[in-house]
Amino acid sequence: MLRRPRFLVSATGVLLLCATAVAPGAFAGLFGHGDPHACTLDRSGQGPAPGHPFGYDIQGCDLYANVVHGARDSLSIGLLTTALTLLIAVVLGAAAGYFGGATDQLISRVMDVFFGFPMLIGMIIVLQTFSVHSVWSVSLVLAFFSWPVLTRIMRSSVLAVRGLDYITAARELGAGHLRILLRHVIPNAIAPVAALTSMSIGSVITAEAALTFLGVGLSAPAVSWGVQLNTAQQYFTEHLGLLLYPSVFLCCAVLSFVLLGDCLRDAFDPRLR
Question: I need a surface site. Which of 30, 106, 228, 254 has the fewest CB within 10 A?
Fold first, then answer.
């Protein structure tokens, strides 16, 4: 993969995004003053100025600093949601594919219910029941509606693995179900799911931005790209930068994760190249 420009570009973008999320103050201070909370209404909506390359938002806050600091909450939700989704998918998908029978039927029918339910409407309804919309609450709701896709892929991969000779040999040697699952089935079946995990992070970041844009996701004083887009929808006709800069950062982040996931999928399964 190190010889593939697409992987190098996407991996560099992901690393920069992670570094920005870990230390937003350092990156915000590279080209500006680096404080998203230093706001002055006298500068409301003003254009770029020395130390403030993106200008100011409606509250008079440095727009560049806000965009940079927005990476932390957006990426936190993406990683947390994907981790929860992956955990659920591995457990339920492995159980459904390995044991089959009633276990498979039960898990598959529950997945069918989620596939047939409008996901966006469901997220909005559930989020409305939370009194506080934090990184954790939004991540839990996103994971609650996102697990069936990866679970179905995990189930299919386990179905392809469970009948192979080394699984039969382990069973004949007296290995228990838990040992076979942990030592043989899951490690050899998780590759397709792991390859899609990076793509899932990009999808979750987009979903968080969409929910926040609709007013049911994160809310101030949280700083995320979705919060900034939600604020910009009332003023972008007069101040295009309020919409443009968060959108560019959001698109670059999602594109980096999607391209990285595509490269990982090719690496895990060379037949897809």
Answer: 30
Q: b/e string for 149-179 if b means 16 or more Cβ within 10 A?
A: bbbbbbbbbbbebbeeeebeebeeeeeeeee
Tell me how far CA of residue 49 lies from CA of 4, 52, 198, 239, in angstroms.
Answer: 39, 5, 37, 15
Which two structure tokens, joined as six digits, stand for 70? 């927005």
Cis peptide upstream of residue 50 (ω within 30 degrees of 0): no
CB-neighbour burial class of residue 234 (10 A; exposed 0-12, middle 13-18, buried 19+):
exposed
Taking only the tens place, the pLDDT of each residue in 105-144 is 999 999 999 988 888 888 998 988 888 888 899 999 999 9
Over range 1-28, report the average pLDDT: 84
Contact 69, 225 (CB under 8 A): no
